[in-house]
Amino acid sequence: MSKRPSIVFLIADDHRHEALGSSGNSVVRTPVLDELAADGAAMQGAHIFGGLTGAVCAPSRACIMTGRSIFRSMIGCDPAEWTHSTDIRPEVPLLPERLRGAGYQTYAVGKWHNDKASFARSFAGGDKLFFYGMSDHWHVPVQSFDPEGRYGKEREYVETRHSSEVFADAAIDYLRRQDGEQPFFLYVAFTAPHDPRTAPEPYASMFRPEELPLPPNFAAEHPFDNGDLGVRDERLASVPRREEEIRRHMADYYAMIAHLDAQVGRIVDCLKAKGLYDDTLLVYTADHGLSVGQHGLMGKQNVYDHSVRIPLLLRGPGVEAGAKPPGLLSNIDIAPTVAELAGLPEQPDADGVSFADLLRGERAASSDAGERASTSASESESAAEPFQPRTYVCTAYQDLQRMAKDRRWKLIRYYRSLASEAGADRVQLFDMEADPWETRDVSGDPANRHEMERMARLLRDWMDRHDDILRHVPILGPTIPGGDSV
């Protein structure tokens, strides 16, 4: 690539993978994002690494921006200092920080839910900056860029237009000032579709609740204590869940996404009008997904696919058009990939794996390192097959849940909390080929014992490699189906 691409990095809050037309959802309306998917690559297997706090967005954003695990990127996420901090370690480089050092003009708009020091060293400019987890979308406390990086509360002022429009306007104002001479990294972090889900008209009335089909995994209640059933998100709807109430939540969720899609469209139109579109790498992703009634849950504080799978769309230089790779990815893989596409040298201490070869349609021999290791002979990769960064992924949630997933099977381990009696000491096993909505736990079937033990070994290896705080607790034991060997 003779010219370094500019980058527009768009990240949503609570947008699950399934809630896109390009992911097969026939109800939600996302024409702009669907066009990005068609013109670029729509990654089908992107998962979050997880988090040790109920506010999953902060650790997820740290993983995305650093390419490191939560245990290595964040303060307070190792066994000796577990304090639920949202701060990124000062010695850990962030993607925009590296790009800034390489001559990119870095500019931020919208939400930054990590510490202000990591923001200050990453960005040389910005506007409409939001340093909280959530707010009323019609009363958004924002700040202007501070060259000294202090961002005290006294600098805040309130925007009374819808948040998605406020952030899109600020991004467009920046793009209108660009002449294409210096590559830029524009980071636009929306707070939609996070609740309170209050889209403007005509989007608010776009979806009729009574016409929305409930997902196959809708349930009135979760079947057991997952350790966090009392978190704020779970109190957004009555328990047991009522079908008409969940449909209303779904309509509001889809409305926020449709409005967000339109704001992304305005940013894309500006790039085209400025003649920058073809030289710009666009990335669209989210910090995590959301339940909205699936499995009897409302929030993201779980490791089912609706909460841990995220959209990941890339379009522009270095991306083969029309690709929908099914391979498994972790959100720690995003920073190394964008860095490679921008021409940065490989970061040797990153936990993530670049999938730039996959975007370019190239083929490569597999590595047997880490999560890239094949899990069976039938899954082994060769130079004759498309490059796949990972054959399995894992996710952590607090001291309550861990997940391992390969191309067919998914194991979830639940724990009783280290700090309380919340949670259940048990496992679930799902055959994702036969049951993609995770409705049938087959962990009790003796025929699946081999898969239980194999998935448990993958999870154990992952926990050991990343110094997980629960790595010394058996995954399968005398009280857990599957034996006591793992």
UniProtKB/TrEMBL annotation:
Sulfatase N-terminal domain: residues covered: 5-343
Repeat recorded as keyword: no
Chain residue ranges for the region called Disordered: 365-385
UniProt family annotation: Belongs to the sulfatase family.
Keyword Cytoplasm assigned: no
Sequence ranges of Low complexity compositional bias: 372-385
Keywords: Calcium, Hydrolase, Metal-binding
Source organism of the structure: Cohnella cellulosilytica
Protein name: Sulfatase-like hydrolase/transferase
CDD domains (alphabetical): sulfatase_like
SUPFAM superfamilies, alphabetized: Alkaline phosphatase-like (SSF53649)
Tree of life domain: Bacteria
Pfam family, one: Sulfatase
